[in-house]
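User: Hey, quick favor. My workstation is busy. Could you predict this chain's structure for me?
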Amino acid sequence: MAAQLPPIPRYLFTIIEPISLIAGALGPLLDPSGFVTNQLPLQSPATIASATSALARFTSIFSQQSGKQILASAHPTPYEHILSLQLGNEYFLIFLVGLFVLRTTNEIRVVRAFLWACLIGDVGHLAATGALMGAESLKDVGSWTPVVWGNIGFTVLLFVVRVAYLSGLLGADGEQSGRKTKGKVKGS
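Assistant: No problem, here it is.
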């Protein structure tokens, strides 16, 4: 199936993104504490205030304990630790699903549906991360950690390429091998 995609999305979605998903899985699995503490840019007063405010708004919707400072520390709680490990597992799951879908199907409709699901996931990922970072931290790219670059920078790249591909801006999909053309099987 990968051969049916135009070159840019084929390279990005079948090589680069799977490698990034493995890296995304290994980070929280091998170093949960480092992964948790690097979710936000370097801790400036603006970042702390923005994250605390966003978390207070978020938690007030779901619990009666809003207003508590819930920022990651150098020593994540057991809750943060288990969530980090679960997130690493989810990255690995997405890697496997992408690998299996993009390497096994000959149906371009299945690939496009998979990429639409990823696009919707990108929006949720960017919205959640951006809401907790706040506008000031989003603009201060110099303070971004490598984890933030992956969460924001790389996800924006994937989002833009998914939109461009799904809207046809990166070229047409190739023909499937073995597909009938004018009553004949291609290649006969």
